[in-house]
Design goal:
By secondary structure, the chain is α+β, with helices and mostly antiparallel strands. It has 3 domains: 116 residues, no CATH class; 76 residues, Phosphorylase Kinase, domain 1 (2-Layer Sandwich), CATH 3.30.200.20; 235 residues, Transferase(Phosphotransferase), domain 1 (Orthogonal Bundle), CATH 1.10.510. The C terminus is likely disordered.
Length: 466
């Protein structure tokens, strides 16, 4: 685990470069679950678990801070044994605490200007191992480009950076995504994202305009979405708007599934919310960097590595079963996202990624109204069906999920079949405290939305957000 002061520096830097906002930083008094083993610290581990920042990005920021401390002569670098114990990383190039800035360089470090020192790609211990170009936060990746005019940095992560730019030929604003560094697997993922997204044409999926290369750097030119991530916007949305958003996202994902594309990383931060002039909102699904084309037996997680965001991934994805993922894995993630949007919490939360993955694989998801009692039963039933461990018992498609969400919005009954392991609440007026007693097995089970007769419950549900 990092020293508290160093964790604070990482969080502060993440806010400065736009990775995180001040509002989402957990308090220093955040508690860890009993017996939990923290890797970075209570606050960073919680943010990683929530999918707000990746471990890779935390390590990149940590490297930058440690190298800067060496160059400035005000070092906070621990010794090798501390790094091995705290981060579980074996380092061979970490300077001793008594060394000066010159000793921090690797023999392979090329000559470059003083201003470019912090722009180098670094090992985990902070040594410089070769200049790969400026980091996304310092300058634009291409100078004097006749195709696009950069305007500002929109955001960056472990994989790359996204910039707002103007298309000089067509006169439109676009989002330009550049990959970071030259890692072969990351480049593969980058091109996979472009290939998968370019096949999709849906108003609720970010459009890809162009894929190209400039100055040896691959880029994707995409639709510029002027809005906030759902994770940030959801607190200002009404209950009905939240459900409408998830209905539209589900329809968008059905379109992707019909084209043979599985997203594999659906979560609130990968859904942008754009405000329309008439006051309505337009959700747009982003970031197909982990998308897999159905039938492609050679996915990037073929070896069984777990990729995605633990709090929102399906049990089969958490087990690393890349070959067996299908549209129902995205249905689970849609349900987890709906759960988070309605309650302010993902179905499974813990201070460590490992604990979340174990919970996703082995524990039943909590019922929606155990966290938000004022929400309608119908939404609890919908979430429960999405989040069941057995994918055979989930909605068979994102379209089926969207149809039930539409029934809720239209004050109609949702109809689903009673399946083993899916807890269904009793209709109002007959709740005996037995959530599974409402229906017999293998029969149609109507659950009233009851939105109109109970406006007080709807209003309470809309405010039931952190």
């Amino acid at each position: 685990m990092l020293p508290a002061a160093e964790e604070t520096l990482v969080l502060k830097r993440a806010v400065e470069i736009g990775e995180l906002s001040e509002a989402e930083i957990p308090p220093e008094t955040a508690s860890a679950p009993q017996g939990a083993t923290l890797r970075f610290g209570r606050r960073l581990d919680r943010l990683i678990t929530r999918g707000r920042i990746s471990e890779q990005r935390v390590l990149q920021i940590l490297r930058e801070i440690r190298v800067e401390s060496v160059v400035s002569g005000v070092t906070i670098l621990p010794n090798r044994e501390q790094v091995r114990r705290d981060l579980g990383i074996e380092v061979t190039m970490l300077p001793e605490q008594t060394q000066g800035p010159a000793d921090a360089r690797s023999a392979s470090t090329p000559d470059f200007d003083e201003d470019d020192k912090i722009s180098a790609e670094r090992t985990v211990d902070g040594s410089l191992v070769g200049y790969k170009g400026p980091p996304a936060g310092s300058k634009f990746p291409v100078e004097s480009w006749d195709r696009y005019e950069f305007q500002k940095l929109l955001g960056q992560g472990g994989m790359g950076a996204v910039y707002k730019a103007r298309d000089k030929r067509l006169g439109r604003l676009v989002a330009l995504k550049f990959i970071r560094g030259g890692d072969e697997q990351m480049t593969h993922r980058f091109m996979q994202e472009a290939r998968a997204q370019s096949r999709l044409d849906h108003p609720n999926i970010c459009h890809v305009y162009e894929v190209g290369e400039v100055a040896g750097k691959a880029y994707i030119a995409m639709q510029l979405v002027d809005g906030d991530p759902l994770e940030k916007a959801q607190s200002s949305l009404s209950l009905i708007t939240k459900v409408s958003v998830m209905r539209d996202v589900s329809l968008a994902m059905h379109h992707a599934h019909e084209k043979g594309v599985i997203h594999r990383d659906l979560k609130p931060s990968n859904i942008m919310i754009e405000q329309r002039p008439d006051g309505s909102v337009l959700p747009v699904v982003m970031d197909f960097g982990l998308a897999r084309e159905a039938g492609d037996g050679k996915g990037l997680t073929e070896s069984g590595a777990v990729m995605g965001t633990p709090a929102f991934m399906s049990p089969e994805q958490a087990r690393g079963e890349a070959r067996h993922l299908d549209r129902r894995s995205d249905v689970y993630s849609l349900g987890a996202t709906l759960f988070d949007v309605l309650t302010g919490h993902a179905p499974f939360e813990s201070e460590t990624v490992v604990d979340v993955i174990l919970s996703v694989m082995n524990e039943e998801a909590p019922l929606l109204r155990s966290l938000a009692p004022a929400l309608p039963e119908a939404l609890e039933v919908i979430c429960a069906r999405c989040l069941t461990k057995d994918k055979e018992q989930r909605y068979p498609s994102a379209l089926a999920l969207a149809e039930d969400l539409s029934r809720f919005l239209n004050s109609e009954k949702i109809v689903l079949r009673r399946a083993e392991g899916i807890p269904l609440p009793l209709p109002r007026g007959g709740d005996s405290g037995n959530p599974s007693g409402a229906c017999g097995r293998a029969v149609a089970c109507p659950v009233h939305t009851s939105r109109a007769p109970r406006p007080n419950r709807v209003a309470a549900g809309a405010q039931n957000k952190r």
